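Exercise 7b. Backbone tokens:
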């Protein structure tokens, strides 16, 4: 049999997602839900969400239903391996039986990692990089409460951790693991009202990446295509308003749904090098995942466009571009223009060189791994090379529709670091 005509990935897998509660007031049910799931003593993991009163509120609701709650609030952006291991230690010291995460992707991802570590008697989280690395799929139950619209981690089988073992070669890796899927997601737009303008915009571009990457990915997972396109439409319709009119319910709810269905799309439909580039830049500079995606997205769309003009034309339509007799190629180019317009409207930096003020200046109170973070992202050869190599090793790269080589990807990285799009 001549198999040379078969696609790269002829047999695809649909990955299940968890139960979810959505809508205003959904988070009020957390105590009852935790009790019904059998939680007796839970570890609540969060980045702190300082000044919102949200954590005290949720702890109160849990304890009102008799669920004793221990809080770990030191999770950093781009959660580090030590965040996961610290959480594990607290979980075992306090004989907890369950997890609650409150926040965005960092809180949910670190908590998913913690559950995997609990199931493997404290083995280091960095041993679980890659696809379905859990040897023991049974781990503690987990309710994930979202306060952002971006990550989709409350829904997906993915979690992302930064390995800080090597001082000179930090590595931000992805675990795609069916055992990491949460027990229950709570996506309440009311909790998203407090997300500041800048993070609303940046996280929104994570949604656009989660939706557009599976729509053109090499997996070509048909069940992902509808949700992907609809998430693009919702993001185009609602992200500007959610950013600049934070108490606009329709916009906040629209983005919450966009996050949720975009996660369903990439969960089985795969990602691409928008994410790989984002992980690489975070690995070395600890910069925000959504911000990295926003900068990488137009460059990667342009790079991938020749493989999928028709699909990018569909994306343009979902973003509100009218056909008016345009060819697919013209429509695809219009999709790129629409993405750049969205970036500009949301006042997002046009490249990584321009973004240095927006990196996280000193994590872990200046003592941790990235105490030097905030240094300038330089366009020098050595830096571009290390970013390119990190991209080529990323678990999202095989899903990218255009073949990725060092020589083909390196110019894309250079564009992201110092190119002009405005
Ligand atoms: Fe993402």
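Sequence design result:
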């Amino acid at each position: 049999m001549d198999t040379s005509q078969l696609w790269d990935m002829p047999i695809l897998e649909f990955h299940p997602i968890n139960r979810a509660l959505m809508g205003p007031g959904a988070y009020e049910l957390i105590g009852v839900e935790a009790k019904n799931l059998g939680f007796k003593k839970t570890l609540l993991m969060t980045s702190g969400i300082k000044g919102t009163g949200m954590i005290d509120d949720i702890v109160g609701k849990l304890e009102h239903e008799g669920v004793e709650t221990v809080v770990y609030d030191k999770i950093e952006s781009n959660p580090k391996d030590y965040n996961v291991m610290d959480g594990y230690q607290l979980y075992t010291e306090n004989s907890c039986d369950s997890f609650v995460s409150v926040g965005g992707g960092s809180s949910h991802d670190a908590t998913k990692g913690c559950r995997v570590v609990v199931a493997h008697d404290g083995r280091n989280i960095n041993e679980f990089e890659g696809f379905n690395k859990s040897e023991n799929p049974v781990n503690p139950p987990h309710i994930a409460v979202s306060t952002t619209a971006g990550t989709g981690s409350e829904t997906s089988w993915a979690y992302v951790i930064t390995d800080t073992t090597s001082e000179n070669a930090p590595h931000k890796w992805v675990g795609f693991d069916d055992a990491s899927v949460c027990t229950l997601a709570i996506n309440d737009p009311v909790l998203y009202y407090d997300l500041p303008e800048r993070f609303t915009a940046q996280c929104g571009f994570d949604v656009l990446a989660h939706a557009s990457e599976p729509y053109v990915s090499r997996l070509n997972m048909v069940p992902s295509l509808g949700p992907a396109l609809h998430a693009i439409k919702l993001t185009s319709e609602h992200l500007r308003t959610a950013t600049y009119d934070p108490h606009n319910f329709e916009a906040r709810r629209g983005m919450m749904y966009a996050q949720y269905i975009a996660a369903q799309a990439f969960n089985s439909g795969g990602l691409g090098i928008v994410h790989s580039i984002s992980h690489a830049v975070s690995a070395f500079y600890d910069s925000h995942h959504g911000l990295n995606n926003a900068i990488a997205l137009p460059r990667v769309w342009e790079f991938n466009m020749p493989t999928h003009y028709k699909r990018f034309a569909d994306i343009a339509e979902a973003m509100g571009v009218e056909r008016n007799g345009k060819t697919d190629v013209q429509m695809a180019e219009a999709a790129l223009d629409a993405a750049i317009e969205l970036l500009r409207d949301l006042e997002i930096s046009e490249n990584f060189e321009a973004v240095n003020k927006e990196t996280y200046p000193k994590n872990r109170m200046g003592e941790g791994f990235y105490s030097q973070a905030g240094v300038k992202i330089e366009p020098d050869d050595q830096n571009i090379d290390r970013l390119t190599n990190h991209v080529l090793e990323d678990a999202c790269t095989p899903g990218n529709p255009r073949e990725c080589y060092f020589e083909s990807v390196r110019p894309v990285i250079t564009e992201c670091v110092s190119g002009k799009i405005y």
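Instructor comment: The chain has 14 helices and nine strands. Residues 206, 209-210, 275, 289 surround fe (ii) ion (CB under 6 Å).
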